[in-house]
């Protein structure tokens, strides 16, 4: 068990403390490179390399302090001696290109592999899967999908086995065909890293320092990584090498394979379950996006086709209607303007604000439920196939950083045994409180930036209005039609908002990591979950706050021309276009989504490629020399310590854009689909060609991202319903369309949209202005005494002038009713779908039960009966009849004897 293993390791470390260390730069033997660039073995060609350590010979550096060099050498010597004492075999080889570098090769013998396979609860095959597979319902159309599958001649189907957690004492019960291949290279690398993370490098009294990560941070080692099995574009000539990296590049990462499905089993075998589950989720998400993209594209085409025939946009553009409607100034220094000056904007708005958008928003609410439910089923299949069903139920080992800080003692509530912890109860509360306070501070900083951008909008809107509404620019047709003050302000503010978002992200990222390190989570899963929550909360506010402001706050508290609302007592609140703020929300989403995708691709593709190119250029003097496999990998980029964290974060933020604001931007799924099709191949190319091989890790699911996705899906229903109700102009149009009375300021023909523009604009007497707007150099069709503004208020001269009229309250009631009805219908549908669709397929449940039964029979009952059978009665050597019956029972229950 893990706790027993830790005690053994502590005893070994204590004993080793008293051992005299021999003199010399390294305890492991040093050999020269044998000239085989594809070799994955020690110089003897027998022992396989499971890990590589790289250090720099400090003796060749004159500028460093001598005591620092000696301390690093002592720590490296102690660390390597500890590894050898724990059974690890080492071999050092000088670099071919740089005489300062030395590569230490790590090999794990068979006994060590068996020991740590048991410690890590690695599941290994006990018997081939004997359950008859049911024919798939899709077998008749398999010829359609066959061209999209990876080449069967290169990537064969993995054999299916029933598996069980490895136990060293029951080795005979496991399906060991070949000791060299029984543990895959990913398993070997994982076990090697586990040992490297816990081997001591310094012990002073009761203080222990251990772990390869600390040595890397301290400069004792330059790098630590497992080896790729070949070059990515050339198949290995090494005997017995499967060249899985080459296969992954050809069938997965190469641009010519963009249309093929992902070879998930090979990805999992080569990179581990954690990488495999990420690409499985990304691929599943992309496939589901195809349906959403098709419907969203159809909604966009419908809006594009109907923009010219929309009664609302035609009335705005009509010189006899929109051309004669004089609009009130939207700021204190702005001028009067005619409604038809927003003709182009109104047409664009009709593309996104139509009845098809309503249908699409409801569809996306159902789609997100289907996505999450079907992903649970698919994830359950992968959990069983990849032996991660009981991963979280097993004891996960503590992080080395946690163990190194354990100085206090407490009683374990489960075992009742005293154990060491890094902090007291008060210390833990302090650490958590500091983390919460820091996150809240940064969230408030984001809100302050939103206020600053809002002030920018107000100031720039006044400036653009003064420039674009003067006599000269009004005569210039392109400027007059396409560059409205609202559009110019929205675009520039969106760009500035995106820049601020990216700057705050880079700053907060370092703060979040520092806070999480300070909190000292016990396990790596706890660490990732804590960091995930901090980063997502921050980025949720950072990315979405400007969109929420435009959707739900802008133009909602502006008063009316005679009594406007001022921000900070100085700046008049900005108003929406007469058609609403939906077009501005669409612009904001398009800029942020597009800019984020471009920036991420630059970071993920261009930066690693440029760094590798520079590194190869700096070492070009030795380019003609034959480089060993470990030195070729050293020239690649090191993977981030956080692994896939940023990949998940990028996709979850995109998922929020696709679901939270899809009512305003039906093309969001299309953009997300295009981005994801590139993202899969970009990530595959990056991991396969530009980065060192990632240390394989076990993972049961996508972790804390699963509840985050569920929370976003729930919020998306309310968000889209409120966008349709309060941001778009759909509900007022529906109220007008279905009303049977004549509202003020316009004649309403029953069940038509004629006269809606006139009905949706209230009247204001310009003599009631408290601050008289300037009216010079403006071209208007006639002399006027009133102007119009977007609201539903009584006209001047009415007993309740400038108060909300009955139409206003009818619209508010319709909006609230719409939100309640849509939310209840969608949530009820989500509940029904969640109940009807089981999380685990029936076939997988059967296989799991069969596997548990075989594990119990083979590993427990069989051995128990073998022990009982060997017990002989006193005074006799023969087996009794009861023993004979037990033996017969045992043979019947053991599947291996049945097969014989």
UniProtKB/TrEMBL annotation:
InterPro entries: Anoct_dimer (IPR032394), Anoctamin (IPR007632), Anoctamin_TM (IPR049452)
Molecular function terms from GO: chloride channel activity; protein dimerization activity
Subcellular localization(s) per the UniProt record: Cell membrane; Membrane
The entry's keywords: Cell membrane, Glycoprotein, Membrane, Transmembrane, Transmembrane helix
Keyword rRNA-binding set for record: no
PANTHER family associated with the record: ANOCTAMIN, ANOCTAMIN-6
Record protein name field: Anoctamin
Species whose genome carries this gene: Gouania willdenowi (Blunt-snouted clingfish)
